[in-house]
Amino acid sequence: MLIFGERINGMFTDIGDGLRNKDPKALQYWAVKQEEGGAHYLDLNSGPAIPKEERAAAYEWMVKVVQEVSELPLVLDSTNYDAIEAGLKHCKRPAIINSCPAEQAKIERVFPMAIQYNAGIIGLTMDKKGIPKNAENRVAFAMELVAAADEYGLPMEDLFLDPLILPVNVAQDHCPEVLESLRQIKMLANPAPRTVLGLSNVSQKSPDRNLINRTFLAMAIASGLDAAIMDANDDALVDAAATCEILLNQSIYADSYLKVFRAR
Amino acid sequence: MPVALVKERYSSKVGEVVLGATSEQGGTRTTTVTVGGDSGLPFLHFENQVTNRAVIAMEVTDIVPEWSETITKQIGDVINNPVAWAKKCVEEFGADLIYLKFDGADPEGENRSPEDCARIVKDVLAAVGVPLIVEGCNDPEKNNAVITAVAEAAAGENLLIGVAEQNDYKSMAAAAMVHKHTLIARSPLDINICKQLNILINEMGLPLNKIIIDPTVAGLGFGIEYVYSIMERARLGALAGDRMLSMPIICTVGYEANRCKEAHASEEEFPGWGDLEDRSVLWEAVTASGVLEVGASILVMRNPKAAGIVKKHIADMMNQ
Fold first, then answer.
1. Contacts of A258 in chain B (CB under 8 A)
2. What are the residues whose beta carbons fall under 8 Å from the beta carbon of B40, sequence distance 6 or more?
3. Which residues of B touch A254 (CB under 8 A)?
């Protein structure tokens, strides 16, 4: 189970301010803190803090300042592919591009870039029309992305398919569809593509966010989830991920398994 | 029709551990032994390169052991003298390492002092050039005292000392750290305790490449298949990236095989079992070969003829 730390995102005030003022303190603080919490990758997202024309420079800067304090590989999170590419040029370890929907034009832009920079891709099971209502259509989009990986020569384990979870308080019916999608996506190819979710989305604007995140994470891992963009400093959530690995017999039990899960 | 071999690829490998230290490394060994490093299951040469062959450590005890005559007569007179015995193991029997066991330190027995044990270790070190494995007696408290004294007296030699167990690992891990030795971590045929013990020792500050796993083995016919499956699970875990199970494995096959009645009961007693000489050698050699196939790196053996057969078997399996 891979944890992509979600905290370095311009939507948070401290990161947004840091980006605007070119002050790396908050970014570096969260890079270290998320690594301590158990993150395997750090997601970097400038959010709307930076005007479009300055995004490329902002991603280059983010990558550089975060790598000054952390060895963790990065997930470059933006809809602006030029900004992602500017960041990729400076990544010390193979990064992941977040994200590419099942749209031909974007596939043609993103997949060759991933090959060029030895990066992975988070593929979204949606197109221009939005997120499908059911598992069947999500899996159909997933198949298009698997075919693209095949066509461009992206190793299947570098393709992370995200069946897109929506907030439970507005789209409850999507939750079981996402779980079913995870199960089916793992059967699309051999070796199977990997799977990922933007976990915190499931609990947007609900009062018991941590409980919802934690419960859904366990259900999703049991359904085939390999990675999550999530709160790496919610200890109970990270503990749940570690415990799922044990209960699914994916790693060998030892009394100190929680500690080992965080150690690298 | 040509058949394409299915090859398994693993994400990780078994850690490499060096035993012994030459004079440049702070010790006095003429050779060191490197074990581990496997990037796949044993002897699958088409799949992965086996970098370090398994090695044989021959057991020497500080007092005359109560072993079967089939073994003691091969050792001969030197059985009264651990230093000469060790020398014979290296020079005549081809041992890669010496495994020195201080049964005589047991308070219920001769109660040999820790200082006396340390002196014998120094004498053996002076007599042979190969790395040494040193184990105390079966009394935990005395064992700690013996190993602490030995570790200090042989500081820098990078002995393999033991054994640390889940309820008693701290003083031995400290001795290994302070005096630059490697440690045997023994678990009672239990993969979960095996992993936990490695975690605990590592938490004290001993690096993973200074730990050797002793999973506890069983002789042929007495649960060796259970040992096999535990070792296989640990190995597959290591290859899948479980660092806390990624250490090379030592197996005390001589001790276990010779506890089996089949290795020492006479032909008169069991006429159907055949000649004891052959049976005794084969019992130990087959026990050793069994654990070898699942990734044992260090085989601790007693019977010189069995050790010879296994040594040839290792060479055959390595295509040498």
1. none
2. B8, B10, B47, B48, B239
3. 192-193, 195-196, 199, 244
Measured between CA atoms, how close is B320 to chain A, in angstroms?
35
In single-letter form, the type of residue at position A139 comes to V
In order of their start, the domains of chain B are 18-317 (3.20.20.20)
Closest chain B residue to the Cα of A257, Cα to Cα = B196
Into how many domains does chain A fold?
1
ipTM associated with this complex: 0.84
Alpha helix ranges (H) inside chain B: 69-75, 82-91, 114-127, 140-153, 170-179, 191-203, 224-239, 253-259, 276-292, 304-317
Residue that has been written with the tokens 């803090």 in this structure: A49
Coarse DSSP helix, strand, coil percentages of chain B, rounded to the nearest 5 percent: 45, 15, 40
**Per-residue pLDDT tens over the stretch B104-123:** 999 999 999 999 999 999 99
pLDDT tens-digit map of A7-48: 999 999 999 999 999 999 999 999 999 999 999 999 999 988
Which chain A positions have a beta carbon within 8 Å of B233's beta carbon? 252
Q: Is residue A258 part of a domain?
A: no
Query: Which residues from B are below 8 Å from A252, CB to CB?
Result: 191-192, 195, 233-234, 237, 242, 245
CATH number at residue A142: 3.20.20.20
The Cα of B233 is separated from the nearest Cα of chain A by a number of Å equal to 9
Both tokens of residue B281? 């050698």
Question: CB neighbours of B316 closer than 8 A, spacing ≥ 6?
Answer: none
- For chain B, the residues whose C-beta falls within 8 A of a C-beta of chain A are 191-193, 195-196, 199-200, 203, 233-234, 237, 242, 244-245
Contact in structure between B314 and B53 (CB atoms under 8 Å): yes
Give the phi and the psi of residue B48 in degrees, each rounded to 5: -150, 160
Residue in the structure block whose two tokens are 């050698």:
B281
Asked whether residue A29 is assigned to any structural domain, the reply reads yes
